[in-house]
Design a protein that fits this description.
Blueprint: E1 9-14, H1 25-32, E2 36-39, E3 56-59, E4 62-63, E5 66-67, H2 71-82, E6 86-91, H3 101-110, E7 115-118, H4 123-130, E8 144-148, H5 162-168, E9 171-175, H6 181-190, E10 198-203, E11 211-216, H7 220-227, E12 233-237, H8 244-247, E13 259-262, H9 266-278, E14 282-285, E15 289-292, H10 297-305, E16 312-315, H11 318-331, E17 342-345, H12 348-356, H13 370-380, E18 387-393, H14 399-406, E19 410-421, H15 428-436, E20 440-443, H16 446-454, E21 464-467, H17 470-478, E22 483-486, H18 492-505
Parallel strand pairs: 1-6, 1-7, 2-3, 2-6, 8-9, 13-14, 13-20, 16-17, 16-18, 18-19, 20-21, 21-22
Antiparallel strand pairs: 4-5, 9-12, 10-11, 10-12, 15-19
Helix pairs in contact: 2-3, 11-12, 13-14, 16-17
Length: about 500
């Protein structure tokens, strides 16, 4: 973020072709400290989650027939903002490849505004690659040509040299211009390009919405019309297109073409989102909850301070472990101060979080619910008069302390944190969900269910529900939702596995 002594500067940043994993490290670093982010239609909106809460987000997207600002207005906006602020100008793909980044750089230079260009992965190469089409291949072609099908509308005639394209051959990649594919294909044929030349169109390349259309120079325009194949898309002309069906890998992933909503906290969404994306899904991260300190921090601190006096400490979630040990190490400088207390944990993620603090888990039931902890303690033998401390969420069910108390244990509950509705989440994810819909929404706790429904969003047609376990499922059913997927193992890998199983059947 800019300080009073830091001059303004504009960064012309390539946002990549759509897959979040193809954004450069430099791009993310700049977004994370930006004062202003000016972004385009083709930028993955998930990138905006990296911006500081205080950052100003300005959409200047352009698509056919709908321009929020004219180019000269965008230039003026960048100059105005960058006089005193750190501005990140996000442009789909690479800013200097048909991205009008050169024009924006000229405007900044003319105004004496310092600027920096951050190249991005261009869809001209990435989209074909995700469709299994190498733009060069030793056995087929050793050169590639890029051209745009969407030229300056003020031009009186096209600057595309179709005669030169016909002579040079090789692979030719056209960005923008799906609406003109008929005229472009006709011009190419008129200049001697053979009618049966393989052609492919890749729509929303590298994303979960990717669609590929294969044809020939003769047939492709009719295929576009017959399938309502709409922009944004990249067109590839050449013999390498014939490799597409042989080398297609993106569509082969089990969740390819699926759009899935993740409702966890911003900090925790990554683990689930990354696994879904790796399997081909497009993810919309819509945080519905956030984790905050407990209402009575003093009471929690006193229980943590006395942890050495308990026979058992039970952790019901990774959040509880984190909150407990953050408080513990504020009070003590030595892990041995925890005394002889043994540790029980619900679920592998909770157990791993305990191990992150270099402590052993003595009891971990096979099922990841409170009822399983009770059964596990019963197998341990008589627990009468044993002192048990349960570190959990403030709003958690009372089943565990009640049942352990019924077995004779002396139970104290340490409210380690509370789950509250996420009120500061930006609206981009909500707008995407309403406008584009989704195939599935994931709920990882009862609070994610309650707080998502509290948003009052219209339920997208056909959107199914995936639940992490029976408690979450019950909350969803009580609220009138139908559960399509419930994880057999009540953790993130188990949820992902269940989602994959569901879509593989359908």
């Amino acid at each position: 973020m800019a300080t009073k002594t830091e001059p303004g500067r504009c960064y012309l940043v390539g946002a990549g072709p759509g897959d979040l994993g193809l954004v450069t490290l430099r791009a993310r670093q700049l977004i994370e400290r930006a004062d202003v982010v000016v972004y385009d239609y083709l930028c993955n909106p998930e990138m905006l989650q990296w911006a500081p809460e205080s950052a100003e987000l300005i959409y200047v997207g352009k698509k056919a027939g709908a321009h929020t600002l004219k180019q000269n207005e965008i230039n003026a906006l960048l100059v105005e903002k960058a006089r005193s602020k750190q501005v990140v100008r996000l442009k789909g793909g690479d800013p200097f490849l048909f991205g009008r980044g050169g024009e924006e750089a000229q405007a900044l230079g003319a105004a004496a505004i310092p600027f920096e260009v951050v190249p991005g992965v261009t869809s001209a190469i990435a989209a074909p690659a995700y469709a299994g089409i190498p733009v060069t291949h030793r056995g087929l072609t050793s050169h590639v040509t890029f051209f745009t099908g969407h030229e300056d509308p003020e031009k009186t005639e096209s600057s595309i040299d179709f005669e030169a394209l016909a002579k040079i051959g090789g692979t030719q990649v056209m960005l923008m211009g799906v609406e003109r594919i008929d005229a472009i294909a006709q011009k190419m044929r008129e200049h001697g390009v053979r009618a049966d030349l393989p052609v492919a169109l890749v729509r929303w390349g590298t994303t979960g919405r990717q669609k590929v259309l294969h044809g020939t120079l003769q047939s492709i325009a009719q295929q576009v019309a017959d399938t309502d194949f709409a922009p944004p898309a990249v067109a590839i002309f050449g013999e390498v297109v014939s490799l597409g069906k042989e080398l297609a890998w993106h569509e082969a992933r089990p969740l390819a073409g699926k759009r899935i909503v993740v409702t966890r906290t911003r900090k925790q969404a990554g683990a689930l989102s990354d696994q879904l994306r790796n399997l081909g899904a497009e993810v919309i991260e819509l945080a519905t909850i956030r984790i905050e300190p407990p209402s009575d921090r003093r009471a929690f601190a006193e229980l943590v301070q006395d942890a050495h006096g308990y026979d058992w400490i039970v952790f019901t979630s990774p959040n509880g472990v984190t909150a407990f040990f953050e408080m513990f190490y504020k009070l003590y400088g030595d892990a041995r101060e925890i005394g002889g207390a043994r540790i029980a944990a619900i679920g592998p993620a909770t157990a791993q979080r305990v191990r992150d603090f270099h402590l052993k888990v003595d009891l971990q039931p096979d099922e990841f619910v409170a009822e399983a902890v009770v059964r596990a303690f019963k197998k341990q033998g008589d627990i009468e008069n044993l002192r048990i401390l349960i570190a959990r969420a403030e709003e958690a069910r009372d089943l565990l302390p009640r049942e352990l108390g019924a077995l004779g244990a002396i139970v104290d509950v340490a409210a380690a944190y509370r789950t509250v509705a996420e009120t500061g989440d930006r609206t981009e994810a909500r707008s995407r969900l309403v406008a584009e819909g989704a195939d599935m929404i994931t709920f990882t706790s009862s609070s994610t269910v309650e707080n998502f429904l509290a948003l009052g969003l219209a339920w997208p047609a056909g959107m199914e529900v995936a639940s992490i376990g029976p408690i979450t499922s019950k909350t969803a059913r009580d609220r009138g939702l139908t559960i399509a997927v419930e994880a057999r193992r009540h953790d993130i890998p188990g949820l992902v596995e269940a989602i994959v199983r569901h879509f593989s059947k359908s």
